[in-house]
Structures are given as structure tokens and as C-alpha cells.
Amino acid sequence: MTDLHDPRFATTLARGLSVLRAFRVGDDGLSNAEIAQRTGLPKSTVSRLTFTLGHLGYLVQSPRDDRFRPGPTLVAVGHVAATSLSFLIPAHDLMQRLAEETGTLVVLAVRDGDKLVLIRTWRPRYIASIWLEVGQRISLQPFSSARAFIAAATTEEIDRIAVEQMADRQVLDDLLATRSQSCAEMARNGFVFTPAGSGIPAAYNAVSVPFRTSNLAEPVVFTCGALPPDATAERMQSEIGPRLAEAVRSLERMTGQAPHLTRSET
Predict the structure, then answer these.
(1) Whole-angstrom Cα distance, residue 20 to residue 50?
(2) How does pLDDT run across 68-83, given as a tens digit for each residue?
């Protein structure tokens, strides 16, 4: 990560981007005071930033309640970013089929600071599943998605992450403490598994597999999740985990990516 004291670092731009990152799925707009609370920026600074972002179309302010919401320019930029991830095209059919045939929710997550952000979801059309939305942020607590991410991250990537400013440093430390176990599980099974509960606030069983793409600087993570009555821990490990691992291997072959952290055959 760039040193915040580097003369090339544009502090005003960084603050403006932190305003955009303050918005979460389910927000019905945010006031300047709420944005200030989430970003830690002074309210006067937030007022100037939201005015500028609104003028440029990244935010819109409702005359009904004066709250800010993502604007059309931000939506357009997000669409351009999504379409630049070419692996999402072949991934769609693979993951939708997996969701249909296993009855699980399949999600794709990327890291954003001390959170993983869901950028795609695939759910079975005729079976009820757990409900997570695109844009939802998940803590880097040692659940399956975060464990798969840290198992796939290189030493250099971990060093870079370690110097980032994070709201909850302990979460990263706890995750790093599980890295050797997660790497061993990936080598043994081709996926990592975390049962519901497991000392963290997750009500569903989940299996995760990392994926590398040349479009991004860090690994991304595919995860299948379901409530225990819908997919027992035994089924997640014996059936769904191997199927997710095979789907990711198929995606690697289709996109010409080198296999990453595949299962050991010994």
C-alpha cells in the first residue's frame, strides 16, 4: 500500500473515495452526519466532498429528505469495472449451475480493507437459500471466505495488507493465525470449510475456493453457503466442496489461468 506521507498521495481524493465507500447495501440514503460517523471525517469536510461528488454525478441528493444516494456516474463506473473482469462471463454459467444443482447460494468476494465485498451472487431459482446481496461487506473473521483468501495470498500480499490502516487490526491478526491450517486444508481437500457457528456470528455452513486472475492484484474467493438443515456439514465437505473446487478448476482452464492451491494428490 502507498505510504500516506508519500507526496504523490492525494489526500483529498482518498477522502472523497472514503465517502463513496461509506454506502452499504440496504442504506436508504445517508446524511452528511452519518457519512462523517462512518468515515471518521469532520462533518465540514464531508459537506464539501458530498457537494462536489453530487455536482459530478457520483452522488444524488433527494429533495425529499436531503439524504445522499449513489448517483448515475458511480453506477456507470461500477459497470465499467465489472465488465473489465472478463472471467465473470464464463463464471456465470458454471456458478449458476452449481447453485441450482446443490441448492446453495454461491458468491464471489473481493477484499476491500478489513472486509470482503460480494461482487456477484448466484442463487437457485426454485429453492430457498440464504440471502446475501451484491455489495454486502463481510468481516475478515476466520470464516471460510476469509480463510481461503489468506491461504491464497502471497507473502508479499500479506506484508502489504499488514501495513494498511484498518479499523479492526485484531480481525486480521486472528485470520493470519489460521493461515497454516487453511493452507493445509486447501492442499488436502482443494477447499476450506467452516461450519455454522464456529465461534463467529455465521448461521450457515460454507466452503470456499480462491481464484487468481490477471485482472486483479489479489485473489478473489468463490463460496457456497447454506443453512445446516439445507446442507449438512458432512454434505458440504463430501459433495459441495469438491464440486466448487472442480468448478473453479474449470474456470481456470477456460480463462487460461494457472491452477492455484489445488488439491494434493499424495
Answers:
(1) 9
(2) 999 999 888 887 877 7
